Amino acid sequence: MASPAHTGTARRLGVPLALARPVAAAARLVSRATGREGGALPGKVLLSLAPSALATMARRGRARGRRIVLVSATNGKTTMTAMLAEMLAADGLDVVHNVTGANLRSGIATTMLQAGRRGDVCVLETDEATLPLVAPDLRPDMIVLGNLFRDQLDRFGELEVLADRWRDTLAALPGEDVTVVYNADDPLIAELVEEHVTRCAADGIVATVVPFGLDDPDVAQEGLPHAADSRFCRRCGHPLEYAHSWVGHLGAWTCPGCGMTRPEPVVAATSVELDGLAATRLQVEVPGEPEALQLRLPIPGLYNVYNAVGAIAAASTLGVPGAVLVPALAAAAPAFGRFERIPVPGPNGTNGTITLLLVKNPTGLNEVIRTLVASGVDVTATLFALNDGIADGRDTSWIWDADVEPLFERAGAMVVTGERAAEFGLRAAYGGLDPEGVLYEPDLEQAMYRVLERAREFTEHGHAYALVTYTAMLKMRAIIAAQGWARSYWANEPTTRRRRGSRR
Ligand SMILES: [Zn+2]
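Above: inputs. Below: predicted complex with zinc ion.
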């Protein structure tokens, strides 16, 4: 009976989920006790013991009526996922939602493991390269595709390869079961979704797709920036033309070569008012709502408008009414490290703040700078931390593609830190920043104190701004927690939330 073939099968299938679960739960305790934030370890242990655990947990949840939504994008997926989770929870659903950063296969497994049997819906932020790896197991009810920008090329290869893998991901899912909510303003995504629709039609299936986008020419950018990643038609190679572009290559595009054109967004922001760093007002057309929704987002930046519109498109498709989602979004806090403003006590009762701004690719950096400049805040005390860890992207050459000059002009000087501080210093020198204005401080903690000192000395309100890559942000956040300025982040970002949840 026990032929070698059988033994092989048993090994591959691993131990039953019921046995693997307690071991993985123990791993979670160990990972917390040792202060390792992120939460990937229990999922990693679970998947090594029971490789099919993800599919099993998804199937069992589905049998109880639990839905799964996967949210992926190069930029903004953390914010978009948090907004969607917030709106669904406000509508009375028991929402399972993964911790910031735990968006790989192991992190998603951890989240589902911790949720156990509970949850009406799993809203899972999913890394772009991970989406094709988890979607076949999870069999999501909805996929939200936000954008594809150049990011960490050394890890992913070309953008087009990623788009091809997303295309294959959709092709491998049953077309009648999955709703695709997607950014129509991104030509790479629109093209692959259009193909999904065509393929389903050939099989006699009407695919459910919900395009979202922007429709306010007043906030468009003048021409495509240097960092625009997708300038050519995927179908025929002809350069795309834009009536308007809003963020990077996201815009109202058309191809003069083959006639492919941006699908009309079904959910669209028709009026956007950027109110400095404090807030953004927008009007969003949503099908089924008697009139356009009027929203106030407590976070800045046009790219966050995309996050909000994408999250609204997903939430309204899942049945959340405007009357519920508007107040839920108004209460949304900035996601971890995204315009997160942290109060910093100073000497003699003075108080300042440090605002953390995650940057990881040219488009993201451009948008952060554009938002800072447009808001007119005093950027005299600004820090840039450039690391080249795996999570940052080993290749830091993207800083040469970003339009950093407007910040240099206004800042006059910058505290420069991180493993690749010298490279950013060089970029600053080429960008016209006076070499005397490049204040090198290799130690991240000292650099932070230095920029806060600068804020106290040279600005009216003591506000400092820190533009940091991912691993630098984790370190900075740990320093902030150690100083008691803010709690360690897993402590205030629960993986699961209930209505009027325990958040904040
Ligand atoms: Zn074309």
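Residues 1-12, 488-504 have pLDDT under 50 and may be disordered.
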